[in-house]
Amino acid sequence: MDTKKETNYLEMAEMGKRDREEDNNRNEAEKRSKVGVDDQVEGVTAEQSGLTLDGFCTQTVLRESAREKTIFIHGKVRLNKGLRFGAHRINYSCMGGSTHEGQEAVLILEKTPFREETLGELLKTSDLKLQMRNDIYSTYHLLPHAHLNEIKMTAICPATEKHINKYLRQEIFLIQENSKDYKSITLPYIQAGSFSVQWVYNILEKKAETERIVFEDSDPETGFILLPDFKWDQKQVDDLYLIAICHQRGIKSLRDLTADHLPLLLNIQQRGQDEIQKRYGIPANQLRVYLHYQPSYYHLHVHFTALGYDAPGCGVERAHLLSDVIQNLQTDAQYYQSRTLTFTLRADDALLQKFRDAGRL
Ligand code: M7G
Fold first, then answer.
1. 246 C-alpha vs ligand 1 centroid, how far in Å?
2. What are the E-state strand segments in 276-318?
3. How far is CA 199 from CA 39, 196, 293, 305, 319, in A?
4. d(CA 2, CA 327)
5. Where is this region: Disordered (predicted)?
6. Is the CB of 38 under 6 A from ligand 1?
7. Per the annotation, does 296 bind a ligand?
8. Are 216 and 226 in contact (CB under 8 A)?
9. Smallest Cα–Cα separation from 234: which of 268, 216, 209, 217?
10. What are 58-74's pLDDT values in tens digits?
């Protein structure tokens, strides 16, 4: 890499305090700013947060993986009084036919990794039940105390049909999107129907997850917030997963990036790596730093995951290393406007149908 050029970009990142461009998304965010804000505070019970599972009614198992020890469930959740999960309440029938007030929900349950610091307690205090013995081999059921046997749960409520489909196991197809396809097929589709990025605005505006922020550079042009991704329970660094969300609005994805964004990208790369080294002791050469194309949420963000962790979505058909993105833009300012980009789409994805309708599949 041209180091002089890089230093220039970093200097620009430090100094570049230009006026912030008004963004269309801002109005949308302000309109919705009172809806769906729910700070995650460690120690608050699910009941206090408004979610209880006693009335949960499973509709379908969307996906499960014995290897990853995860299960994705679609169901309906009964609401507590004063629940803050948005406004759309509906009635539903649960197995026996009785009707409840409830909302569509997706629950993701995941067995958490072992932690070295609790291993001693786990082995000392658990009940051991022999399953079988043969020669020098034996297998057991180990029954640990509840606090050593946590399951991580992520709830999306109210969940839209798009959320439910996102987690449904389906056939996938490889798409080659050229720049014309992007303008005529993908862009109109994103503008009409992508996931809300309200949760992103809540983070940027300090309305949610404030206690979880690891680092912030508040520069409107080159700044970002670094915080744990909600896939990471932060109990061990082996599966470390953080995201850097840029303050600048209106950069939807990789496709919008030009050389003008290099100060922003270099800043995210450099500061993100520095902060992770400081906070978690993981050096840059042990981190995978990348962007998704297509992302689920069209507000530019960068994924930082532990190199040894096979994070979901880090495969070659979706992840673009930030260092490659930076070099591509240094070589060709319009690289991501002109190149054909390859990604996968799921069978039921409306975007796939649009590619079919346009004769591109
Ligand atoms: P993406 O590439 O747009 O899509 O990444 P993906 O979800 O299909 O990977 C968005 C990233 O943001 C993912 O890694 C999500 O796990 C993470 N994420 C999504 N939500 C709704 C939240 C949230 O509310 N808080 C945090 N901290 N992370 C989130």
1. 14
2. 287-292, 301-306
3. 10, 8, 19, 21, 22
4. 10
5. 1-38
6. no
7. yes
8. yes
9. 209
10. 999 999 998 889 999 99
Q: Which two tokens stand for residue 210?
A: 């404030």
Whole-angstrom distance, CA of residue 336 vs CA of residue 148: 47
Query: Which atom in ligand 1 lies closest to the alpha carbon of residue 212?
Result: 27
The SS3 assignment for 239 reads helix
pLDDT tens for each residue of 67-123:
889 999 999 987 654 344 443 444 444 544 444 467 899 999 999 999 999 999 999
Collapsing DSSP states into helix, strand and coil, what is residue 269?
A: helix
Q: Is residue 292 lining ligand 1, measured as CB closer than 6 Å?
A: yes
Phi, psi of 200, rounded to the nearest 5 degrees: -70, -45
Q: Active-site positions?
A: 301
Determine if ligand 1 sits within 6 Å of the CB of residue 201.
Answer: no
Q: Ligand 1 centroid vs 213 CA: distance in angstroms?
A: 15
Which atom of ligand 1 is nearest the CA belonging to 298?
Answer: 3
Q: Is 322 annotated as a binding residue?
A: no
Q: Is 36 in the pocket of ligand 1 (CB under 6 A)?
A: no
Q: State CA 280 to chain mean position distance.
A: 20
